Amino acid sequence: MESHGPVRVRRCGALRGGARARGNGARGAALRHPRHSKGELVGWVTIEALSVSYGDTRVLDDVSLRIPRGSLVAVLGPSGCGKTTLLRAVAGLLPVTAGTITVGGRLVTGPGVQRAPEKRGMGWVPQDASLFPHLTVGENIGFGLPRTKQSDDLYCEPGEAPGGVAGLLEGLTPSGRMARTRRALVRSNAPLHASPLAPAPISPDRSRQNNRAGRIAELAVLVGLAELVDRAPSQLSGGQAQRVSLARALAPRPDLLLLDEPFAALDPLLRSALRTEVAALLHGQHNTSLLVTHDQEEALSLADYVAVMRGGEILQFGTPADVYERPVNPWVAGFVGDTVELDGQWKDGRVECAFGVLAADWMGAEMVPRDGTRVRVLLRPEWLTLGARGSTHPPVDAVATAIAYAGHDALVSFALADPEKTLVRARIAAPDLPRVGDRVTLGICQNALAYPLAEARAANIPE
Asked: Which residue has better confidence, 32 or 319?
């Protein structure tokens, strides 16, 4: 049993430990068995009945989550729902009230067990890059790796002085290749004009790939920063700094990578581009990752699985398509995307509402209700179509009342031709946009979702 005493953790470094000693032999293999035969997710990281309190305030309440090996799981929720608390508890930075956390079959948190953060084999990518200003890019990347003079000298060419990471990376840049080639030509008395840009090959000795300099060089290339290893953090853009932070967290080959809203401080264009690159990198490296975010687009576009969180509880866990197209309740539906919500009545497996009688899927936990039961009907704006094209339902008359233009498409408000002039919104592609006042017909291309009224009311309860 390990000590429960206070542990000092470097705020912006990788949480170093176990994974480095165990190596990375399994990471190159594709993940072929993410589920048991019964369909239950196999958890490389398993969180069971986790509770965390700040004094008398319960922040996490009986949270359970399974993260398959090699997958990226996003925890999505509003500010104050407990996302970052969950991440910090997994990292070992917060004590838990109850529950267990296992990583790769190792118990890291449980009754009588609280492994120190640096012994959990985890990497951490914070909201801001938090780089050491007095270290270069290469030194920041290698911060969590053991350093010896021998490891830096391994990459010196014969006759060269030890150059550390910078010397190793000379072979990866045009200017560096030229400098190294010139030195080699001088030593060999060859003419200086001979092949000035010919690559100076790095020794193929595989044993050298395991030293510190080799790992830094590998990661610098991986995140596209091979040209910048000698720069100071103050000379980097926000996106470049965040790449360094990611490389630093990946350096010890962690069993689990924790990302705390790492793109929140970036501008929208850079955020969109960088998160796509990061997701591709993590999947390419078969990293197991846990990302917390309040950005719905980020969670749905990057993650293999999404856990939607509210008030310290996980309300739904599933693939992005499951969470978006079949939300467990109206609150989840409204949080992960735009909705069209209508009052309706269940009748013979369908719902009657302002659109008429619609085919519907019952989303309540209890059995399908009796005919005449009042329900809440939910549609996505993109499920509404202009005219009968692609519609599974006879179109209804409507009038365009407002347009929220977004370039590629727009959310168009329509007043239906029912007695109440019910307002709905449809997502229409830019080339097909009507003008305000145009009379159109609206169809529906997908089954409506029907929820019990009690769940609809609960969705409106403030946080």
From this structure: 319
Q: Please give the helix or strand (H or E) that residue 335 lies within, else none.
A: helix 330-336
2: Cβ–Cβ under 8 A, 6 or more apart, which residues? 113, 114, 115, 116, 119
Between CA 286 and CA 255 the distance in angstroms is 10
Question: Quick one: 305 exposed, middle or buried, by C-beta within 10 A (0-12, 13-18, 19+)?
Answer: buried
pLDDT at 224: 87
Residue 292 · residue 260 · CB < 8 Å: yes
Which tokens go with 13? 């470094």
What are 102-143's pLDDT values in tens digits? 999 999 999 989 999 999 999 999 888 889 999 999 999 998
Q: 3-state DSSP call for residue 145?
A: coil
Mean pLDDT of all residues in 405-420: 92
Residue among 251, 242, 305, 311 nearest 278 (CA) = 242
Residue 192, judged by CB atoms within 10 A of its CB (0-12, 13-18, 19+), counts as exposed
Cα–Cα separations (whole angstroms), residue 167 to 115, 171, 305: 38, 8, 41
Q: What's the CATH number for 338-458?
A: 2.40.50.100
Pairing mode of beta strands 98-103, 45-54: antiparallel
Strands 374-379 and 122-125: unpaired
Dihedral through CA 310, CA 314, CA 315, CA 320, nearest 10? 100
With beta carbons less than 8 A apart as the criterion, state whether 72 and 293 touch: no
Closest CA relative to residue 377, chosen from 359, 391, 389: 359
Query: Which long-range CB contacts under 8 A does 29-34 form with residues at least 24 apart?
Result: 29/286, 30/286, 31/68, 31/69, 31/70, 31/71, 31/286, 34/68, 34/69, 34/71
List, for residues 168-225, the tens digit of each pLDDT value: 555 444 455 455 445 544 554 544 443 333 333 333 433 444 588 888 888 898 888 8
* Model confidence pLDDT, tens digit, residues 61-74: 999 999 999 999 99
Are the CB atoms for 393 and 358 separated by under 8 Å?
A: yes
Residue 222: count of CB within 10 angstroms of its CB:
16
CB 253 within 8 A of CB 37: no
The residue type of 9 is V
181 by DSSP, 3-state: which?
Answer: helix
